[in-house]
Amino acid sequence: MSAELLSILALILMFVVATIFPVNLGALALVGAFLVGTLAAGMSTDDILGAFPGSLFVILVGVTLLFAIATNNGTVDWLVRAAVHLVRGRLAAIPPVVFVISALLTAVGAPAPAVAAILAPIAFGFAAEYRIHALLIGLMVAHGTQAGAFSPISVLGGIVNGVASEAGLPMDYLVLFLSSFAYNTAAAVIVFFVFGGRDLIRRGTHVPATEQPATATAQATEHSTTTTTSAAERPATTATPTAERPQTTATPTTERPATTAAPATGQPSTADDGGLRLTAHQALTLTGIVALCVAVLAFKLDVGLTAITVAVVLSLTSPKSNKGAVERVAWPTVLLICGVVTYVGVLQEIGTVDYVGSAVAAIGVPLLVALLICYVGGVVSAFASTVGILGALVPLAVPLLSQGTLGPIAMIAALSVSSAIVDVSPFSTTGALLVANVRGMPRDDFYRKLLAYGAAIVLAGPLAAWAVLVAPGWLG
Questions:
Q1: What is the dihedral of CA 266, 268, 273, 277, to 10 degrees?
Q2: Is 0.90 topped by the overall pTM?
Q3: CA separation, residue 429 to residues 209, 228, 423 (Å)
Q4: CA 45 and chain centroid, separation
Q5: pLDDT tens-digit series, residues 367-412
Q6: How far apart, in whole angstroms, are the C-alpha atoms of residue 392 and residue 388?
Q7: SS3 letters across 395-423
């Protein structure tokens, strides 16, 4: 068996193993790079380590460290409370606000799973309190995190742009970001009207939390026996899904549900009762995030180094409040993407990319191949890591794009959208976090509905991305 074919089979095996077993795909990829590079290709250790993506490592560490600091000092919580305060009394505005907050946080560099872990308990709390469909609010979190996921300073945006640059492909940051934003916004609009948005519009404003006890008392006077019985039974009914939740979701969500369980019950009241005054350090953190955006977008400074600079400045100004921020960096994500990109670098050294290019050329229908690549990205990403599959597929698409038939900007944007929009699947990290934190609906029902929605997205998402971005040929 040739080294090229062996390296492709090893890549497939890594994705299968990482899907079935709780092993970090990046660690598997580093092992694969070592074994395939040494045994199959005769590469030296220095050549293998030379494929390690130092610039991507700095980006990942920088942006996740900054976001960890913003979470530690309460800046993220302040943003959520401020946004909810703006729509007080307007039920129909709550889901769009959840979507916008999710998109904003990922756009400024927060990893999508981290945003989902923080916002899902808060969003489901509001859904339960204001009788909003749980699937509606959960999908607003999921699609929101993906809408902002490909900004130039985000984790996924930095990864795709970095991998494309290393492969020598032209990139348009704005097209990549707007493509993902537009697709997820369209999906969110459909979700809004399918899962109860029109009912929220008809209901108008909600009864403030401070008036709800009075309402309950009035109902108790009118139907004392029935109300007393319902009130006594309701805690038992609600407690069952909560007690069962950690057992059922322990495997897909790893340790996050335990971390986010507490906010699930306490955050809504915090959002209602908490003040909107910024502490000095929170104001400085917001200023730092804005400065990062300006430095990267206007002055073209390096995302990772700038983010680390801002994070260090914030740490020096308030060491106590930022204690433990380094431990909250998304180290599993860092290991995952750096390992996969290292393996892809080994593939390039072996000649696997040229091997795939020859196979693609043999098919003779570039548009069909482009559609198949989009579906591969969508299907695999629904079960495995989005950052991992993008790090592997973008370089493997280079031979197809080098033929000149398809625009590389359009193809990369379509592949990115296809791989990310399917993260609503309950088998993905974001989807699993939604299942773990759901309120206002039996967890099994929510899981089944989310699974059906995820399957529909896997079928329709890549086709829609290909049909709009690639097939017309209107993008470069």
A1: 100
A2: no
A3: 32, 40, 8
A4: 34
A5: 888 888 888 888 877 766 677 777 777 777 777 777 667 788 888 8
A6: 6
A7: HHCHHHHHCCCCCHHHHHHHHHHHHHHHH
